[in-house]
């Protein structure tokens, strides 16, 4: 289970976009998995089982009313890096475009594209047929391309 934490964190951060909420989701996923470990069928990789738990928790969180919270500033790392202003703008554009995708599309796109999962595993995690995964992925990619296209209005403009 410990080896799965980086994958869970990466998916949660990409899904939610906020580090604190993503870490909370990962922690809740691991807590629920630990309590339900006796129900796990040890016939394969534990990662799809953990992603299924995370998916279900995320759906539950979406359905619950949210409390208004103020984000805390993350601590600065203090590590010097080369300037990457354009890289950051491109990442912000991508992040903003991902946020504009419907939830179903974003989930499939992140599991296949970010986590490099096969369609069958994604279908199992999301509880839908493999054909649905393929069509959602195709539509998600097309919509993401349209959002990021040069002819579409820029999500963040570079001022020169």
Summarize the structure.
By secondary structure, the protein is mainly α.
How would you sum up this structure, described in words?
By secondary structure, the chain is an all-alpha fold. The protein has two domains: 2-63, Orthogonal Bundle (Rna Polymerase Sigma Factor, Chain: A); 85-148, Arc Repressor Mutant, subunit A. It contains seven helices and no strands. The protein has helices at 5-16, 19-35, 47-63, 85-100, 103-114, 119-126, 130-148.
Secondary structure topology:
Layout: H1 5-16, H2 19-35, H3 47-63, H4 85-100, H5 103-114, H6 119-126, H7 130-148
Keywords:
single chain; 160 residues; mainly alpha; Rna Polymerase Sigma Factor, Chain: A; Arc Repressor Mutant, subunit A; 2 domains; 7 helices; globular
Mean pLDDT: 81
Proportion of strand residues: under 5%
Relative helix content = 55-70%
Query: Alpha-carbon distance between the termini?
Result: 48 Å
Q: Spell out the CATH superfamily of the largest domain.
A: Winged helix-like DNA-binding domain superfamily/Winged helix DNA-binding domain
- Based on CA inertia axes, which overall geometry fits? globular
> What Rg do the Cα atoms give?
17 Å
Name given to the CATH architecture of the largest domain: Orthogonal Bundle
Determine and state the CATH class of the largest domain: Mainly Alpha
The total count of helices amounts to 7
The structural domain count equals 2
According to DSSP, the number of beta strands is 0
